[in-house]
Design goal:
Blueprint: H1 2-22, H2 44-50, E1 53-59, E2 63-68, E3 73-78, H3 93-118, E4 122-126, E5 135-139, E6 145-149, E7 155-159, E8 162-163, H4 164-175, H5 177-196, E9 199-201, H6 206-209, E10 211-213, E11 216-218, E12 225-227, H7 233-254, H8 256-267
Helix pairs in contact: 4-5, 5-8, 7-8
Length: 272
């Protein structure tokens, strides 16, 4: 009995250590369904980008992210485990089933909305099968090299951005409050453009979902977008509050005058 317990402990320890080393990544976890009829045509620009090796950068709730060798682009592969029912789902099956159904809805629609309606620096969105993509080369966190058939994998190719808050801090150091006010205006314009298209965002995390690319703000992780009726004043105000709450909180802590400016600029956005 003691040997069995020790063996089980050692096995669990090895699995845990392997998971830590790879940050939980495995090629099997990105083998997802391709729901669209066909993928869009491949441009020569995208083809040249995809032949580069991509090395592991980070992961979010929904995706594993790999950075191109030239540092200009990222490949996002969808973590299919995020969509699967967890082992503990028997404790609240209907709740977990509804949660996974919502996640699958965002997986199937959100990036497509962002690509079609907002651009968001998405160069290629592959959600349907194809035949013309090159073999992709990725290096995981341990440096192990994997060859992937990109024709059979759902993924997003996007320009690589820098984190939003660190970008703002750099602007403040160079230009002071006037620079922050300009960037707040740009952020508000981006939110206004989204809301004008009746697109809501279920994720209010500004710090990790927004960034800068080539000097301008963009929504680097538009993973929870959906169409909704935002014309009614109360619903419009709710959407603006969700979109700016975390940003206002951060500004209040570090740049209170800029927080007041954001609050003032948003205050009458939904007035009939």
């Amino acid at each position: 009995m003691k040997r069995w317990i020790l063996s089980l402990f050692l096995t669990a320890t090895l699995i845990w250590a392997a998971c830590i080393r790879t940050d939980g990544f495995s090629p099997s976890l990105i083998q997802g369904p391709l729901g669209r009829a066909t993928a869009p045509p491949l441009s020569s620009e995208v083809g040249e980008i995809l032949v580069q090796p991509f090395h592991y950068l980070t992961k979010g709730r929904q995706c594993f992210v790999f950075e191109s060798a030239d540092g200009k682009y990222v490949l996002k592969f969808f973590n299919q485990k995020y969509l699967e029912m967890p082992w503990y789902s028997f404790l609240s099956r209907e709740k977990e089933k509804a949660k996974r159904a919502l996640r699958r809805h965002f997986y199937e629609n959100s990036y497509e909305i962002a690509h079609r309606e907002l651009g968001e620096e998405i160069l290629y969105l592959h959600l349907g099968p194809s035949e013309s993509l090159p073999t992709g080369t990725i290096l995981d966190k341990t440096g192990r090299r994997w060859a992937l058939d990109l024709n059979r994998l759902p993924f997003v190719l996007q320009k690589k951005g820098i984190p939003f808050y660190s970008g703002l801090e750099a602007i403040y150091q160079k230009e002071g409050l006037q620079g922050l006010y300009r960037e707040i205006d740009a952020f508000i314009d981006a939110i206004s453009r989204r809301i004008s298209k009746s697109i809501a965002d279920a994720d209010r995390d500004v710090e990790h979902n927004w960034g800068y690319v080539e000097g301008h703000i963009f929504h680097l992780d538009p993973g929870r977008l959906y169409y909704d009726d935002l014309a009614e004043s109360a619903r419009c105000k709710e959407e603006w509050e969700r979109a700016t709450h975390d940003f206002h909180k951060w500004l209040t802590e570090y740049y209170p005058e800029a927080a007041q400016y954001l609050e003032y600029m948003v205050k009458h956005r939904c007035t009939p």
